[in-house]
Design a protein that fits this description.
With 300 residues, this protein is an alpha+beta fold. It contains ten helices and nine strands. Strand 8 and strand 9 form a beta hairpin.
């Protein structure tokens, strides 16, 4: 086994099912709430990681976030590991006394564990497509500059073709700390979708197709070009993008994602059930099986 493979195996053993190639913001944050005093410090988290993984000389990491988790008294710490074969996301939970930590993911519990998320997602108002009276609703929180979102696009398009009873809603969630033109892209999605729902999906597909051609300097020029290719009026859309209300709409979408605990893209919710890694480490067949099940359950 070569060194890179050994590093990845070490991470996989430690991180269990949490590995993901989703895009995440790049700045570590600590919530300024009354609970923040009990949060582990960034220095403590970094020291912990050094003790755990410091022997791997080709492994580096970046601390992304330190905040209270959804479970009372438990802190949630997130870091991204960099290897020669890419990135892996690690989420760590720490007990209130900071004596114990565990890897994994907190899952909602109860007879209907996704009811709360479904209730929150009723506020999703981005461009949508699919069944008018759906048995299954999928909400995607995405970022036009996010490579993982582009990678997931063929899978979600295929899923929508194969699930005629499903409806898909796209919600803007630009990761502005790491993607310099993502906010502008989100404003274009908002304006294009208000102009025409069908046009919005054409525009999103075109932007993902040409994602590598867009940069911070040519954003407006390229996005106007893609609006025209999609069949829209770039002059009218650019005027809409400049309005303060458009940025307000984008921030409302971001706030909805943050309320749901999102910190990476793409994040999907399938009838309220969170799904990350679609298009990378989560197989298409598994997601199709899941959606088939929820569609069948809706018919009972």
């Amino acid at each position: 086994m070569n060194r890179t493979a050994r590093i990845l195996l070490t991470l996989n053993l430690a991180l269990a099912s949490l590995a993901s190639t989703a895009q995440q913001p790049g700045a570590a944050t600590q919530k300024s709430t009354s609970a923040s005093s009990s949060l582990p410090s960034e220095a403590t988290f970094d020291a912990f990681l050094k003790k755990m993984f410091g022997y791997e000389q080709n492994l580096t990491w970046k601390i992304i976030e330190i905040k209270p988790s959804e479970a009372a008294g438990v802190s949630q710490l997130t870091a991204v590991f960099n290897t020669t074969q890419g990135q892996q996301v690690m989420r760590l939970y720490v007990t209130q006394d900071q004596k114990y930590a565990f890897f994994g993911d907190l899952l909602p519990f109860g007879a209907d564990p996704f009811a709360s998320a479904r209730a929150d997602l009723k506020a999703a108002n981005g461009p949508s497509r699919g069944a008018k009276d759906p048995a299954l609703t999928i909400v995607e929180f995405g970022d036009l500059q996010c490579p993982a979102c582009k990678q997931a696009q063929p899978n979600i398009n295929k899923l929508m073709e194969e699930e005629p009873k499903a409806r898909l809603i796209f919600q803007n969630f630009p990761l502005v700390t790491i993607h310099k033109w993502a906010m502008t892209g989100a404003k274009y999605v908002d304006c294009v979708s208000r102009s025409s729902n069908d046009l919005a999906w054409k525009f999103i597909d075109i932007v993902y197709e040409h994602q590598a051609e867009v940069n911070e300097q040519n954003t407006a020029e390229m996005l106007n070009k893609y609006v025209k290719e999609a069949g829209g009026d770039p002059t009218a859309i650019a005027a809409c993008v400049a309005k303060p209300e458009t940025e307000k709409h984008v921030h409302e979408s971001i706030a909805l994602g943050e309320k749901l605990g999102i910190n990476s893209t793409p994040t999907f919710f399938i009838n309220g059930r969170r799904l990350q890694g679609f298009g990378s480490n989560v197989p298409y067949d598994m997601v199709k099986q899941m959606t088939d099940y929820y569609v069948s359950e809706a018919g009972k």
